Amino acid sequence: QVQLVESGGGLVQPGGSLRLSCTASGGVFSIYGWYRQAPGQQRELVATITNGGTTRYADSVKGRFTISRDNGKNTVYLQMNSLKPEDTSVYYCYGKKVVTTYWGQGTQVTVSS
User: Fold this and answer.
1) How buried is residue 112: exposed, middle or buried, by Cβ count under 10 Å (0-12/13-18/19+)?
2) How far is CA 62 from the centre of its chain?
3) Is the distance from CB of 29 to CB of 97 less than 8 angstroms?
4) What is the rounded distance in angstroms from the CA atom of residue 94 to the CA atom of residue 19?
5) Can you give the pLDDT at residue 34?
6) Residues 4-25: pLDDT tens digits?
7) Which candidate, 18, 10, 7, 8, places its Cα nearest to that of 83?
8) Counts for the chain of helices (H) and strands (E), in that order
9) Of 103, 58, 61, 98, which is closest to residue 82 (Cα–Cα)?
10) What's the rounded Cα separation, in Å, for the pair 13 and 72?
11) Which 3 state secondary structure label does DSSP give 77?
């Protein structure tokens, strides 16, 4: 059974940092990524990483967020630094296995003073 479990969300002050984790089970995933969606907003692709380590970022997070993966642990991370109130959202992890995309349950990130 394929499952992706996220952790690491929470409340942080502007300028602070958080690290999200997503651990996958049930196979090998070629691509991992993070999306986010705020209430009333469209879903936004935040970052992706291939199994070869190639990364891509949304312009809004470049230079502040870093995606990485530990293939031995089947885990993908999103290090978020210099957080801004506009980063407040539910963050969803996804993993692509062959032609199917699987999703985590989402974790809330709130940036507020």
Assistant:
1) exposed
2) 14
3) yes
4) 16
5) 97
6) 999 999 999 999 999 999 999 8
7) 18
8) 0, 11
9) 61
10) 33
11) strand
